[in-house]
Amino acid sequence: MKIIVLALGTITAFAGAALAQTVVTDTDGNGTYSVEELTAAYPDMNAELFAKIDANADGAVDADELAAAQDAGTIAK
Ligand SMILES: [Ca+2]
Ligand SMILES: [Ca+2]
């Protein structure tokens, strides 16, 4: 019973965190975020902004680049 209560608490905490910040979904599951995937979370995404977030300019945004851009205020958290 204790395990079930703990699990519910974890799910509730996760849901709360998800509501508090922008969630970018890796829709195609390739481990990085494309401009399309970022646009789903940030409707004002564009090529110029994407290039700013894509720090190593490999055409994809990884979790570290996304976190860095959010911390720098380039995009909302
Ligand atoms: Ca992806
Ligand atoms: Ca990149």
Description:
- The chain is an all-alpha fold and 77 residues long.
- The chain has a single domain (24-77), classed as Orthogonal Bundle (Recoverin, domain 1).
- It has four helices and no strands.
- It is globular.
- The model has no long low-confidence stretch (mean pLDDT 86).
- The structure holds calcium ion (CA) (2 copies).
- One calcium ion (CA) binds next to loops.
Domain module tally: 1
User: What order do the helices and strands follow?
Assistant: HHHH
CATH topology call: Recoverin, domain 1
Q: Which structural class is indicated by helix and strand composition?
A: mainly alpha
**Top-tier CATH class:** Mainly Alpha
What is the second-level CATH architecture?
Orthogonal Bundle
User: What is the global morphology?
Assistant: globular
Helix percent band: 55-70%
What is bound: which ligands? calcium ion
Question: What is the terminal separation in angstroms?
Answer: 36 Å
Strand residue content: under 5%
Number of H- or I-type helical stretches: 4
Oligomer: single chain
Show unreliable segments.
none
Number of beta strands = 0
Q: Calculate Rg over CA atoms.
A: 15 Å
What's the pLDDT, averaged over the residues?
86
**Biggest sheet layout:** none
